[in-house]
Amino acid sequence: MHAYRTHTCGQLRIDHAGQQVRLSGWIHRKRDHGQLLFIDLRDHYGLTQCVVDVSSPILARVETLRVESVVTVTGTVVARSADTINDKLPTGRIELKIEDLVVQSAAEQVPLQVNADADAGEDVRLRYRFLDLRRDKMHQNILLRSHVIASLRRRMLEQNFVEYQTPILTASSPEGARDFLVPSRMHPGEFYALPQAPQQFKQLLMMAGFDRYFQIAPCFRDEDSRADRSPGEFYQLDFEMSFVTQEDVFAAIEPVLHGVFEEFGGFRRPAHPAITKPPFPRITYADALLKYGSDKPDLRNPLVITDVTAVFRRPDVEFRAFRQVIDKGGVVRAIRAPQVADRPRSFFDKLNDWARGLGAPGLGYIVFEAGAGKGPIAKFVPEAAQGELRDLIGAQDGDAVFFVCDQPAPAAKLAGQARNRIGDELGLCEQNAFRFCWVVDFPMYEINEETGKIDFSHNPFSMPQGGLKALETMDPLDIKAYQYDIVCNGIELSSGAIRNHLPAVMYKAFAIAGYRADILEARFGGMLSAMKLGAPPHGGSAPGVDRMVMLLADEPNIREVIVFPLNQQAQDLLMQAPAPVTPERLKELHIRLDLPKPRKPSGTAVES
């Protein structure tokens, strides 16, 4: 008999009754029933109920063991009586009568409960992540992640993509976030950067003639944490293709994503969800902001925002609060709330208070009934203008229309938030669905809010629509690029683009963003050299693995699907990173620290 196990803790069935077996695992739970002591023994594969009779000489040893101790038990498989069968467990028709027990590792008092879902707080969970991962929900999340990655890899290989690995120690690249820098011992004062994405390398692979590349790629960005973004590192399905148009890229990745969500969509749902079938809807960036108030539209919500600025410009509409904003370049956005006329006043007041809580003046509204419209704005909007509103919005009797008036960007943001809020309040959003879409035609450039200068709005290596001619003749802020995002349920899964493969376009595109030719050549010399020696048209994308698994696991926080994540302060509490480095190591790396001075406590003198 094997020293540790003949079977796993999820393997035994009624057919094994009468056999002598050996199991190893963790004590998940102990239950003392007087004459019998039950142990639920757990391993990676499942759980088996084991029993010790009061007359057994090993009872005293078992009684002293805490949960999470690791033991090896040997005994005979017996069938459970009919009244003790547990059909919720695959092993629930048998139990193991323990005849021998070896303690492999005795556990001390555990700092969090493994056999219960009691919230221990994120810091405790991350400090003892190895315990947290023993919990069934977390264990299943990580297994799901592994299965999703295997499925992605299989589906990409089936489409003749080939997997290549790109460097981790590389040069800095403008990907829109801060780099993690690694000092070079051999080259004093110089630094490597961990890749924010394998962007340049995958393009260089296309220029090297490999045609179809993919990789489950680690990416590193020094960003702040949020629910759908882990600080530090993340993984993406990175892929690139040669001699393709934007539609070719969509056609390649859509069946992969649809297939994975179809395969694993029922992971934690009572019924299999509805999933958008290819081809996914295409929504322009401009329409996304107008109709959904976001470049990450959640299409589970059927509500659509309408621009009604023209109505409030009418000479017979005398609503000064809106007209003053419109005269300064503002817009009016409207969101239809279907069949809410019979709602109490508190429904409308609650939405107004919510908007004020976001810093807005509130949400004006009109309720349409068989007669004249009602509400705080209705008296300023005569019947003819109300009729135009109805036609524009598609409002029916019993509907209410909520209004947002501001400059275009803040108006879009608040209208988008109001759309989501109203959809949730009215229960309009699909509850068991994955709704995909592409957001296309992103602007090539934007104004950097910090510097006031023109900057890339998306990927700097993208091909502008119209090519070099557009760069030379158009207002940069009017130029669109062959850039696209794929969005699922309001979460951006990836950004992608058809890449620029022409040196002249690259020089001009970067010059508009303030990069001189010598700086461009110093920072991206390898890319330019490859372009000058024959580069094919190419493009790709990189759906985020962590976000995919978060959606499939129905988790609100991305850290729930990462094995060892950093906390919100970008700290690894388990391994105690980041950590100070010894003076000797700093000297070896030619680094001298210039740390910020500690804050002076209020009312306390600081010694000099």
Q: Overview of this structure, please?
A:
- The chain has 608 residues and is α+β, with helices and mostly antiparallel strands.
- It is built from 18 helices and 23 strands.
- Helix 13 packs parallel to helix 14.
- The chain is globular.
- The relative contact order is 0.10.
Give the structure's gist in a few sentences:
By secondary structure, this protein is α+β, with helices and mostly antiparallel strands.
Percent helix: 25-40%
Radius of gyration: 30 Å
Strand order of the largest sheet: 6-9-10-23-22-21-18-12
Based on CA inertia axes, which overall geometry fits? globular
**What's the number of extended β-strand segments?**
23
- The SS-based structural class is alpha+beta
Low-confidence stretches: 604-608
Largest sheet: 8 strands, mixed
**Number of DSSP helical runs:** 18
Question: Could you tell me how far the N terminus lies from the C terminus, measured between alpha carbons in angstroms?
Answer: 71 Å
Relevant terms:
single chain; about 600 residues; alpha+beta
Topology record:
Blueprint: E1 20-32, E2 36-43, E3 46-53, H1 59-64, E4 70-79, E5 94-105, H2 122-127, H3 129-132, H4 136-158, E6 162-163, E7 181-183, E8 191-193, H5 199-207, E9 212-221, E10 232-242, H6 246-264, E11 274-275, E12 282-284, H7 285-292, E13 305-307, H8 309-313, H9 320-327, E14 331-337, H10 345-357, E15 364-367, H11 383-393, E16 400-406, H12 408-425, E17 433-434, E18 436-440, E19 445-447, E20 454-456, H13 467-473, E21 483-488, E22 491-498, H14 503-512, H15 517-523, H16 525-532, E23 538-541, H17 545-552, H18 583-588
Helix pairs in contact: 4-6, 5-16, 7-12, 13-14
